[in-house]
Amino acid sequence: MPAYASEGASGMDIRACVEAPVLLQPGETRLIPTGLTVSVPQGYEAQMRPRSGLALHHGIGMLNAPGTIDSDYRGEVGVILVNWGRNPFQVRRGDRIAQMVLSKVYRAEWREVEDLDETPRGMGGFGHSGVE
Questions:
Q1: pLDDT per residue as tens digits for the range 53-86
Q2: Contact at 8 Å (CB) between 14 and 98?
């Protein structure tokens, strides 16, 4: 079961549920099963996020971080792991491979307009604010 590792943790540890160890070669991406199915309350999402220790020590990350589990999804939760490191990495049953955070979802109501309000930044983007 997902579990918080400490009193102040915002994410619950998610573990691999693989039949046999999976060897992730450098540059390889694999969908790792968790054995979990969830019922997220309406108005919320579960976000799957990478674990910092796996990233720092092994170069292991998630391609679609954060991954979203919608409130109406009922299939098994999977984690898309990628090995950005230099060495093969083995995923074993029970290994902590991700963390899950429950988050409120706000739904937007779109409205078409002719013009947008002006701001000092305007259309400047992609480094427009400069380097300090």
A1: 999 999 999 999 999 999 999 999 999 999 999 9
A2: yes
Indicate the helix (H) or strand (E) that contains 81.
strand 76-83
CB 92 within 8 A of CB 21: yes
Residue 125 has pLDDT above 90, yes or no: no
Q: Which domains does the chain have, with CATH numbers?
A: 3-104 (2.70.40.10)
Cβ-based neighbour number of residue 15 at 10 Å = 21
Nearest to 35 by CA among 70, 66, 84, 2: 2
At 67, give phi and psi (nearest 5°). Answer: -80, 145
Q: How far apart are the two ends of the chain, measured CA to CA in Å?
A: 45
DSSP class of residue 7? T
How many whole angstroms separate alpha carbon 96 and alpha carbon 25? 18
Q: What does the block give as tokens for 24?
A: 């992730």
- The rounded distance, in Å, linking the Cα atoms of 98 and 72 is 21
Q: Does 29 have pLDDT greater than 80?
A: yes
